[in-house]
Structure formats: C-alpha cells, structure tokens
C-alpha cells in the first residue's frame, strides 16, 4: 500500500520544502543508510577488476589513482595511439628511434610523435582511421605520396617541421578542421589540387 504525498510529508518538519526520502537514493525504504554497504561492494569490485587486470590495488595511494590507470589502459586498447616524446629530453632511445619505424599499425587513431626522426612515414602505413596527426618539429619531407582517403582526419600539426617540402592532397580529407604549418621554414609547396 502506497502512502499519499500528504501523509508522507506530514512526518517531516514543515521547514523542509520536500521530503528528504524522495531525493536521497542511498536511503532504503526502511530509512537505513546503504552508502557504506554500496561503498564496500564498490571497493570489492574495484579490487577484483584490478587483480584481473594485473594491478595490485595496494600499490596505489588512493582509489582515484587506480581508476585513472585502469581507464587509461582500457582507452589505449580501444583507441590505439603512438606517442613518443622528444628524444633530446628522454636521452638515447636507441637506433630504432633514430632511423624511424619500419611500420606503423593501420588501426592508429591518433599519431603524436614530436621530433619524428625519419624523412617519410613508412610506405606500408595506411592512415585511413587516423583522426589526429601531430608531428611537431619532425624531419618529414612529406607525409605520403599520392592521394590518401582520410575521412576521419580532423587535425594535422607539422609545426616546426623545417624539412617539409610538400603538403599532402587535402581534397581527400573532407573533415579537416585544422592544418598547422607554422615555422615550416623549408620551401613548402602547397599541393595544387587543394587550392
């Protein structure tokens, strides 16, 4: 049997504008506070997820830090990204980084690589799923030969790429919102098809 609103509201002081139980989702119908119980279940679930994923929740100072690490890991698996920092700041990264990669995964959505060491992207790389290309201060001469179908690419940042000589054909990039070629001091030729 349901209580009417009038009956329920008479049991509360008249100073409250609305009965508290209508808005507090943590109170059961008996008036017991279930927050502690839910918090215990949340922590148990978090520890289970952490242990299944290979993390030890004891290695983290707070739950927020552990959740952040788990979310970043899941995000990186769903949205693969390559991000490499400036090799000058990180010390010697090995000969692989100096020569540049032999291949890149075609599933990349974001490619951020400051100071990219090679003059060209790998010939086998097909960036059809790419949404962001950020290669500041790279040694790139050009991004790729010919026309690439890039329906998802929204941003190209080649700021400071002093060796850049030719821009790609931008007609095949319908959703491009930003193109940064600032401080590309080489003789950059704009692809005539894009003008």
Automatic annotation (TrEMBL):
Span of domain TIR: 36-85
InterPro entries with a match to the protein in the record: Disease_R_plants (IPR044974), Leu-rich_rpt_3 (IPR011713), LRR_dom_sf (IPR032675), TIR_dom (IPR000157), Toll_tir_struct_dom_sf (IPR035897)
Top-level taxon of the source organism: Eukaryota
Keywords from the UniProt entry: Leucine-rich repeat, Repeat
Keyword Nucleus: no
Family annotation (SUPFAM superfamilies): L domain-like (SSF52058)
The keyword RNA-binding appears for this protein: no
Gene Ontology biological-process annotations: defense response; signal transduction
Name recorded for this polypeptide: TIR domain-containing protein
């Amino acid at each position: 049997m349901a209580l009417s609103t009038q009956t329920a509201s008479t049991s509360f002081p008249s100073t409250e504008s609305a009965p508290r139980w209508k808005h507090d989702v943590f109170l059961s119908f008996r008036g017991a506070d279930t927050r502690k119980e839910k918090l215990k279940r949340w922590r148990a679930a978090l520890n289970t997820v952490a242990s299944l994923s290979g993390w030890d929740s004891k290695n983290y100072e707070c739950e927020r830090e552990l959740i952040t690490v788990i979310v970043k890991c899941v995000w990186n698996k769903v949205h693969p990204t390559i991000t490499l920092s400036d090799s000058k700041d990180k010390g010697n990264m090995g000969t692989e980084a100096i020569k540049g990669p032999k291949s890149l995964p075609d599933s990349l959505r974001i490619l951020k690589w400051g100071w990219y060491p090679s003059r060209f992207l790998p010939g086998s790389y097909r960036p059809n799923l790419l949404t962001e290309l950020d290669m500041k201060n790279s040694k790139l001469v050009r991004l790729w030969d010919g026309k690439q179908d890039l329906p998802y690419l929204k941003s190209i940042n080649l700021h400071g790429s002093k060796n850049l000589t030719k821009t790609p054909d931008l007609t095949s990039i319908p959703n491009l919102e930003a193109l940064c070629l600032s401080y590309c001091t080489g003789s950059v030729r704009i692809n005539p098809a894009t003008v």
